Amino acid sequence: MIDLNADMGEGMPGDIALLQVVTSASIACGGHAGDETTMRETLRAAKARGVRVGAHPGFADPEHFGRRRLALPVGAIKKQVREQVGRLLKVADEEDVPVAYVKLHGALANMAAEDDALARVVFADVNAHYPGMAVMALERSGVHRAALALDIPIIIEAYADRAYDENGLLASREIEGSVLTDPEAVVERCVRLAARGEIVAMDGAVLKSSAESICVHGDTLGALELAKAVRAALDTIGAI
Predict the structure, then answer these.
(1) Which CATH number fits domain 3-236: 3.20.20.370, 3.40.50.10860, 3.40.1000.70, 1.20.1260.10?
(2) Are 85 and 55 in contact (CB under 8 A)?
(3) pTM score > 0.85 for this model?
(4) Local confidence band at 109 (pLDDT 50, 70, 90 cut-offs)
């Protein structure tokens, strides 16, 4: 069985509707997007629908939606992540909603995927302050390796709507075709992943995947319809 997740609480109009489709919600914690109000609203809606919740911290750079790489000291990065996760946990505790995992956002996620040392510092700090939370991350990434080294539970994730490079990491959004919006192509990718454990990279390479969660970005064009199509296809093959 496979989980279907989406990033939430980022100011997108379809968030609540997406919660009718997905099984996990990664909630922005006030860094790249979100505030106490959006966190509380999303937590309440997820709880009402029985959707698993995770924390979704990123660079505190809302002007660029956390998708600009920032050359910050490692100590500053881990502090941003720790504070954002703590912010969500505080509201979640008030709403009696368990927070199951942490998933990095945007440029920070890409940097940690490429830099094992950065990933290890960030998640050692998260684990020290908030033990018991899993990490959701790409397979073969620095975050995946950090979680294994730190003995933190890992939820391996794949992306429905993003293209991969030959190393199994996400292709830059600056590359044409790196964001997938065609429902047929997205559904075909997700069914292949669930049924055969495979993802096709941009160069045509077939990558093996043991992903147990598939992400549809809430800000992708037509996100709600994409998520509905993916959910229907996965339901049809009994994968969700």
Answers:
(1) 3.20.20.370
(2) yes
(3) yes
(4) very high
